[in-house]
Design a protein that fits this description.
Elements: E1 5-7, E2 12-16, H1 22-35, H2 48-57, E3 63-70, E4 73-82, E5 91-98, H3 107-121, E6 126-132, H4 136-144, E7 148-159, E8 162-172
Parallel strand pairs: 5-6
Antiparallel strand pairs: 1-2, 2-3, 3-4, 4-5, 6-8, 7-8
Coenzyme A (COA) binds next to strand 5, helix 3 and helix 4.
């Protein structure tokens, strides 16, 4: 098996993103952004050329983008960005999204497991993320994956007209 790839017997696999995935990665951000209630961005903030450049130039120990690949289609993505300073290089910040029709299949869990594996390998000790307090499905996923609440920014976002809190969650990998 390719070292970058976690095959599972359910039609999907988790693998590292490639430059050729740029269009599909941006599509995920556009589709999930347009849903309007799960992620902060309304649409992808990169164009295809930028996204491809990011994928080509990614420094191995500093950032990783993983995809959920369903019979060759990129249906989910997860990005980990490592802290860029000596004082926070032991942390990684996670963001993820799955296309609507492919949720509930375990792809989110698979992406997080693979992200944790990579992070531990490169010496990251603490994984961090932020999630809207209204996003119950994502919060459940994160709790199941070992994340705990460590802070709340009250009324930090307005989502579909309502103020919601930003929950800061984190998971220590080797405790
Ligand atoms: C949240 C998200 C990443 C979860 O990915 P997924 O592939 O659907 O999750 P999984 O199939 O691995 O489910 C794992 C667990 O998460 C929880 N979960 C996921 N979606 C859920 C939902 N809609 N309602 C309730 N629980 C949910 C469940 O506990 C589930 O475990 P279970 O099926 O054993 O109960 C995905 O639904 C998604 O992309 N949502 C929109 C974008 C988003 O919210 N991104 C995160 C922003 S912080």
């Amino acid at each position: 098996m390719n070292a970058d790839m976690t095959s599972v017997d359910r039609g999907w696999m988790i693998r590292r993103a490639r430059p050729a995935d740029a269009v599909q990665l941006l599509n995920i951000l556009d589709v999930v952004g347009a849903e309007g209630k799960y992620i902060a961005n309304d649409a992808a903030s990169w164009n295809v050329a930028d996204q491809r450049r990011i994928l080509e130039g990614m420094v191995d120990h500093a950032q990783r983008i993983l995809v959920g690949d369903y019979f060759g289609a990129v249906v989910g993505s997860l990005e980990v960005v490592r802290g860029g300073l000596a004082k926070n290089a032991h942390t990684g910040t996670v963001a993820m999204a799955i296309l609507p029709s492919y949720r509930g299949l375990g792809i989110g869990t698979g992406l997080l497991q693979e992200a944790h594996r990579w992070a531990a390998d490169v010496g990251i000790e603490k994984m961090c993320l932020s999630v809207f307090s209204s996003n119950e499905g994502a919060i459940r996923l994160y709790r199941k994956a070992g994340y705990q609440l460590e802070g709340i920014r009250v009324g930090q976002f307005r989502v579909q007209g309502e103020l919601v809190d930003e929950l800061l969650m984190a998971c220590f990998l080797n405790r």
